Amino acid sequence: MRKTAYQHVVACNVCQINSYKNELPAGRLIPIVTSYPNEIVILDLLGPYPASRIKRYRYILVITDHFSKWLEVIPLKKASAKIIVDTLFENYISRYGAPVKMISDNGPQFISEIFE
């Protein structure tokens, strides 16, 4: 009986339209506006992936300039906050200067004290 009722509710358009939604409503989206390159940089960390054959990289740090959409993709062996900060200085800030603001997805590496 329960299975029959479930199948009926799933197949019924009126039931689907009027069913209770247990999802939160979407938040208001606010666009990020930039005026010049290197004003806002977005950071993301991908991985872990299987280690590469020669240098054993497992993570990828992606740095995106929000104004120009320029990408820097840097392979990493480990994903600690210290390694990410050192990599940012060596591979990005030393070439382009320090960005005004950095945005991340608040992963554990990006909310560490060393990152602030």
Automatic annotation (TrEMBL):
GO terms assigned for molecular function: nucleic acid binding
Domain annotation Integrase catalytic: ranges: 33-116
Coiled coil location: none
Record PANTHER family: PROTEIN CBG26694, PROTEIN NYNRIN-LIKE
Pfam families given in the database record: rve
Parts of the chain that traverse the membrane: none
Organism: Trichonephila clavipes
Name under which the protein is recorded: Retrovirus-related Pol polyprotein from transposon 17.6
Biological process annotations from GO: DNA integration
Gene name of the encoded protein: X975_17282
Annotated Gene3D superfamilies: Ribonuclease H-like superfamily/Ribonuclease H
Top-level division of the source organism's lineage: Eukaryota
InterPro entries (alphabetical): Integrase_cat-core, Retrovirus_Pol_polyprotein, RNaseH-like_sf, RNaseH_sf
